[in-house]
Amino acid sequence: MAELTAQKREILGSKTKNLRREGLIPAELYGHGIENLHLSIPKDAFSEVYKEAGEHAVVNVLVDGGSRPVLIHDVQTDPITDGILSVDLYQVNMDEKVTTHVPVEFVGESPAVRDLDGVLIKVMDEIEVEALPADIPQSIEIDLSKLTELDESLYIKDIKASISYTILTDPDTVVVSVSEQREEEEEPVEEELTPEDVVVEGEEKRAQKEEGEEEQQPGDEQRGKNKEAEA
User: Fold this and answer.
1) CB 37 within 8 A of CB 4
2) Rounded distance between C-alpha atoms, residue 149 and residue 151, angstroms
3) Is the CB of residue 198 less than 8 Å from the CB of residue 158?
4) Contact yes or no for 55/73 (Cβ under 8 A)
5) Could you report the per-residue pLDDT of 86-95, keeping only the tens digit for each?
6) Smaller CB count within 10 Å for the chain: N or C?
């Protein structure tokens, strides 16, 4: 189990930026039935442990000569620099089950992707579980080799049950699927007119106009005769 050495701190609020300049991260440790602690943790040490444990493995925090088992509950980061601003640590009771999210690890190769040119669609990247803190798995493996046909999916209910933890996510939730490649429809290409085409098109329009005038001439002469008769 990973360990982190922390110190109690009295610097609060906006003044915590001074801690960050010294390479320390402000942290809050809390839990059911315990008093909240304001802590500071070395940035480099925390980054190394967080990379290994994530938010689903128990970490021992050493403070005031004692050890406190915690889950890294929340990590606040700077939206611009992505640097860690603060950390929330949740102290757990090793004899009581907790609810947490465990990352999905996709293993193997899908025959539907390899042989049928299918597209792999990963729907979930973590699964909610309930377990004793010591029994929380590092990850839950999903075997892609079971996807042998196009339009096939693996569901939560397809994951092998474990006696160490209980999966809380809906059994009918899709974890990963394979779909058929979709061909992109080609947009019709408009033909560009050349100068010769423009000339021909103009001549055709003039010819149609002249034909229309010739068809109208008999009618015009008749109207003229009718007017003479009326006069």
Assistant:
1) no
2) 6
3) no
4) yes
5) 999 999 999 9
6) C
